[in-house]
Amino acid sequence: MSENRSQEKSDVKGVLSQLEALLDEYMVQKAPFALPIEVKEFLVNVSPYLVIVFVVLALPIIFAALGLTAFLAPFAMMGGYGYGFSWGFGAILALVISVISIIIEVMAVPGLFKRTKAAWRLLFYASIVSLIGSILSFSGIISGIIGAIIGWYLLFQVKELYQN
């Protein structure tokens, strides 16, 4: 059983490493233009503060959405909206994905101040989680993909400024 889990972990790490290499190739090496070093430095310097601000702003929204979801789910079921299950499931899934993404971003904040590669990687993982969430919830597939591409471009442009 333990051997299967370690195999699964290595498979996930392999897929993430391949995705990272592919994105590095297209977002840095084959990108139509690179950001100037001043812009990269600015992004790296301001990113921990942006993460903190966005987390603080997102928490009340998540708590409110959680309360509204719990309150409105029975009415959605009675009204026949998505037969209750799909509406409630989609809302709960979006909330869970948002919470997971925020937790990963919060974990990255101390390393962002220190410019560690591990913190950069946590932001990368948070972007993947967010993209998966937008795809699974069917609420904003196109906007999720566009947001991921823009985020990955910026993230991979500043990758060189994060050290181990």
Automatic annotation (TrEMBL):
Alphabetized, the UniProt keywords read: Membrane, Transmembrane, Transmembrane helix
Q: Which domain of life is it from?
A: Bacteria
Transmembrane feature ranges:
49-73, 85-110, 122-155
Protein name (record): Chromate transporter
